[in-house]
Write a structure and sequence with these properties.
By secondary structure, the chain is α/β, with parallel strands linked by helices. It has helices at residues 11-22, 44-47, 65-86, 105-119, 135-142, 160-171, 190-199, 235-240, and strands at 2-6, 26-30, 53-56, 90-96, 124-129, 148-151, 154-155, 177-182, 188-189, 208-211. The protein has one domain (2-245): Rossmann fold, CATH 3.40.50. The longest helix is centred in the N-terminal third of the chain and has 22 residues, at 65-86.
Amino acid sequence: MKVAVAGGTGLTGRHVVETLTAVGHEPVVLARGRGVDLLTGAGLDSALAGVDAIIDVSNVTTMKRKVAVGFFEQAGRNLLAAAARAGVRHHVVLSIVGIDRVASGYYQGKLRQEAVVRDRGVPWSVLRATQFHEFAGQLLDRLPGPIAFMPRLTVQPIAVREVAEALVALAADEPRGMAGELAGPRVESLVTMARRLIAAGGARRRPVLPLWVPGPMGHGGLLPSGPGARGVRTFDQWLAEGGPGSGF
């Protein structure tokens, strides 16, 4: 099966491409570095020729609602229009658990992405997943200063490789619409994850202090609330295997 991967050079996309290759599918990477621009549509028609399914893990780094909504709406419309012209049979999108409960500019963008997918006529599946094991480190990288004020959140982190495997299995199956919530095996404190990551040498050493977060986000809003699969690789296992450099 020939499968296009939108955002195939990013963190999740690289794992998706590796998983597709490992199970005998033919990946097609959709990325600007490969001559494909989701925001302008350039290169999409030629790249999707003969493609059976698309896995969309494209992303934009922002917390601003306008930027996030603009990116996911434009990229989604262009990708789905090209998919319809190419006769793609299944469009799979990675989304995030809790985006309909937690107020966030970025999450508003993901909600718009889901809406575009539902409305464009290409058979689809949306897999919502929880944060990755890398989440604490990504936040630490964005926090300047000698003290890291980490949001006091509970999360259920999952290994990126397990998310990639789930997306590939979903793409090979029949379209399912909303395909459930994929989460890691254990609920964790984000503050504790950050401290353990620093202690393991995976981030710059400094004190981590909890920062209270109001509303649903600070009261379990990022945890799964519906049915779905659960991963097996814990945050502790990920750290023991090398954390960000482990490949999982």
